[in-house]
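During the first year of the project, the team set up a workflow for recording each protein of interest as an amino acid sequence followed immediately by a discrete structure-token representation. This format lets reviewers and collaborators read both layers of information side by side without switching files. As required by the reporting guidelines, we include two representative entries from the current panel. The first entry is reproduced here exactly as it appears in our internal archive.
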Amino acid sequence: MQFYSIRHLTRFRYSEPIRESIMETRMHPRSDANQHCLSFTLSVSPRCRVFSYRDHMGNNVQHFDIPGEHTQLVIVAESVVEQQAIPEIPGFLAPDAWNDLDTMIAGGDYWEMLLPSTFAVETPALLELARKLDVVRRDDPLMLVHELNQRLFEYFEYVPRSTRVDSPIDEAIVSRQGVCQDFTHTMLALLRHVHIPARYVSGYLYRSREAHDRSTPDATHAWVDVLLPHLGWVGFDPTNNLIAHRRHIRAAVGRDYADVPPTHGIFRGSAESELYVAVQVDASEQPPALDRKLPIPDDWSVLVERAQQPAAPRVPVIDLQQMQQQQ
């Protein structure tokens, strides 16, 4: 059993006072078969009332409205998660696993995770990549997923901030570089291309001293859940060529990033904005004190230096979207 303490800091800073911020967040870790969220708090400055609900995928969502003028919005999400060990994933399944998978699909409600979505779409570039990587129904579903996880790890160069939060799938495929969001969308589209249900997972990755992860340690992370016969939903991380295991902490699942951004909102006003994000994940063998409040450091620059996003261009509009990319 492993325990994780997670702090997720987000700061939006504006060049001019804005009149209102409306925000929705998905930072509250899920509780499911082997993961249990022991505590969660969301602090917002300027102070406001925060409301919660669960969406149709079972994700925990917080939302709030700040109607007064302000030049900065700070969101601090803190959680404690317990992770239990999961069985080892084999290298292959039985020869008739494709038939078993089709039977599962016919008997269940998985169509949302089979159809194209906002970012995981079948473009000409995606279909050409499927041809290059020989993504067709062969061997068995699990063997194909293992191979695709590794091939995408080798195909893409991991380059932080090489794409934008709303970059189409072709941008990463053509340049052969991107961040975890791009790796995940590409794998989703390729799996759905061969009729394997797959969903986007937004969350956090604990980086141990022994790990050699490529993904940025002070940012949120994304990977793929794949539906497999006899195993159910299994996580695969093409950014790091890993099976999502005890170090992967799930916050939300959806068809793609458009369903589960950590922050999604708008502000009213005409101003330049800067987004700063910092994520800190600590591990322990014993459960941490749930009433311990982590202090917010005075020097933000130390925490957010590598996660800093460039300022958005100044535009004279009423509503501007606020979202953070997963690196």
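The second entry, processed by the same pipeline in the following quarter, appears below.
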Amino acid sequence: MPNNDPSRRDFLLTAAAAGVALTAAQQRALAGTAPPSDRIRVGFIGLNGMGTGRLKGFMQHPDVIAAAVCDLDSNHLDRAAELVEKTQGHKPEKFHDFRKLLERKDLDAVMIATPDHWHALPFVQACQAGKDAFVEKPLSYSIGEGRAMLTAAQKYKRVSQMGNHIHNDLPNYRRVVELVRSGSLGKINRVYCSIGTGLSKLGKPADTTPPKELDYEFWLGPAPKRAYNPNRSHFSYRYFWDYSGGYFIDFWCHFTDVAYWALELADPLTISATGGRWMADDNAETPDTMEVVYQYPNDLLLTWTLHPNGRPGYDHMGPCVIFEGANATLVTNYSKHEVWAKGKLVPDFPHPTPSIADSPGHIREFLDSIKSRTKTTCDVEYAHRLNKGGLLGNIAFRTGETIHWDGGKERITNSKAGANMVTRKYRKPWKLA
């Protein structure tokens, strides 16, 4: 029942303003003892750059209480706790181990913004602990992990959202989807995605002792044991195969999302890739130059170009997605799109009446779904289907083989080396239950 004792509430407000750490029960009282349907208590796991950005984004919503923060780097952890105290007037509980955070019974949801190789374990265990989960893109390090995440969300009936904010935070993709689906471009047989990686500035630092503020052994987690190198942790981890899939997997979901959405793509049938780390002089591993070609059902080819300068053509649009139709070609980036026909821009190309409602925002959609128990637009089911394509592209690149994929059984049928990459063997003692 609500606690309407004004003296108690005044004490709690004063304590919060003074920076006194409140117990979980006191924090609920400060929130007016509103039920979880009105106030959402969130724990934040992973608080470097993107994690801090998400923390700020969640706290912009008045029904969110940032109740707990967790990171393996004490500097990130302390900074996040100070940010919560400054923004919301209370001290969140700080955790080093995400498993301890998940033991809190009062948390409604978690936000996971760890490196890619640490997405699956917190997500699955959050579902098991009865928490809804927002997890950054890419959904998972491997296809097997993505399947385990989907299974856990379905089994425990949890609301989920992959942090692919372009899907909801800008209306442009909605207008593109409507136009592609209208049929006015004609039959689409080819889609091109491209992004410029820029030139690497990572260099070749020597292996060294991990900084005292970072629990490097825990940070490695299920990944292989490696000597610490400054380039292998924090933001630049994504350029090493042990932890991520490079620039390609980092942006795959942002760009290919609009193609999967508009064309309702199923899994690809075959995937081939070539390229290398050709333009960089550093100690990173993932390619900065790569061409990936996918064949999808219904006679569709999708090509991904990764290069420091991007794909030539439509340079004024920057990184973009191109739908080549029999009647016209549509070119889109995050915020705008153009239609071209016979080599000329068609500024007055007819658009259908908008039919896809604008979103309340990527984070807001997740929060609303926690209350309504409805699916989000980038839930783990959609995210797994989308993310598989990028992971398969990297498998094709790493094996040097044209991969044949059985989407129904989620297995590679023609490559033993590729089949071994569909999931990964975890380093002991970590297990994906």
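For the second entry, the following points were noted during internal review. Residues 170-205+235-354+380-415 form a domain with the Dihydrodipicolinate Reductase; domain 2 fold (CATH 3.30.360.10). Residues 1-34 have pLDDT under 50 and may be disordered. Both points are flagged for discussion at the upcoming steering committee meeting.
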